[in-house]
Amino acid sequence: xxxxxxxxxxxxxxxxxxxxxxxxxxxxxxxxxxxxxxxxxxxxxxxxxxxxxxxxxxxxxxxxxxxxxxxxxxxxxxxxxxxxxxxxxxxxxxxxxxxxxxxxxxxxxxxxxxxxxxxxxxxxxxxxxxxxxxxxxxxxxxxxxxxxxxxxxxxxxxxxxxxxxxxxxxxxxxxxxxxxxxxxxxxxxxxxxxxxxxxxxxxxxxxxxxxxxxxxxxxxxxxxxxxxxxxxxxxxxxxxxxxxxxxxxxxxxxxxxxxxxxxxxxxxxxxxxxxxxxxxxxxxxxxxxxxxxxxxxxxxxxxxxxxxxxxxxxxxxxxxxxxxxxxxxxxxxxxxxxxxxxxxxxxxxxxxxxxxxxxxxxxxxxxxxxxxxxxxxxxxxxxxxxxxxxxxxxxxxxxxxxxxx
Length: 405
Known about the structure:
Layout lengths: L2 H34 L5 H26 L7 H23 L5 H26 L5 H19 L12 E2 L5 H24 L1 H11 L1 H6 L4 H27 L1 E2 L6 H14 L4 H21 L8 H17 L4 H6 L2 H9 L24 H41 L1
Antiparallel strand pairs: 1-2
């Protein structure tokens, strides 16, 4: 591989790593400018808030399900902890500071909500991560339901009980911008974690836990790190949810919401962060549009249409009969066609292994020229040698004749 080829490969890998940051950053600047200019409606702003929350949840769960290979159904429970405890801190700080749009209250509530969810993730993950498969799913599901029931049965003065807890308001023209910035922070932390030695240990455990344990990897330690990190960002998403909805109700964090987050990860592709982002955006948009279009008596069809769309996507992604169609019609194939235009097979293309493209110490043209000159000079040398031998023979015969006379 030449130096130019290796440099091009490094550039391609670098763009691959920062492509999602660039896209989200451009969208943040675009929608931020439109919001400041007053060109975004309230429904669009609310949709952007929901998308940012869904992306954070999907990316954080992808760390556990996609890269650790563990089935967790308690992500809504960690989100519930962050929403209630972070929302309570935000309400107290807003009362003290006297402003609903206080950035310090928002940052403090995000930190408290994320840390409380991370502590819960540590307490649950320490015994639960020794289990596998369905048993871990049952334990995490039970945790989510227990958390929801606990907050549902609190007093009205503490966390609102069944009526829910009121949270401070924040200007909607700016809240979704904080959501997009938190999405960038989530991507930065999780992607750098996965590219580090800790992330490689996590993926090794997913591929073969017995082999990873045999090589000296502390399986419980690395599983716990990934689980706590995922719970932390779920708690941050819960705080954003409390600010976005102005009221936190425990009924919103049930089993169905955990399944919805899991569907985002599965549809996006196991172990694909970019796929989880795209799936979270599409599913959130689909749910919002169905809730807007199917109103009145048609509202009962919302879950049915949603389920049919998901089934269709799953069949398209996994049906063996559609494999050739998926390989021809996809984003990667389209980009490859745009980068490399189709060439006429009748036109002779240049050979990548031609002599003039391979750097050498000796110029190949000079080397070939010398070889040809030697071949042409060889017959002349042979003639001269023959003439010299004939002259020598004639001299010898002349000397013999003189001796005889």
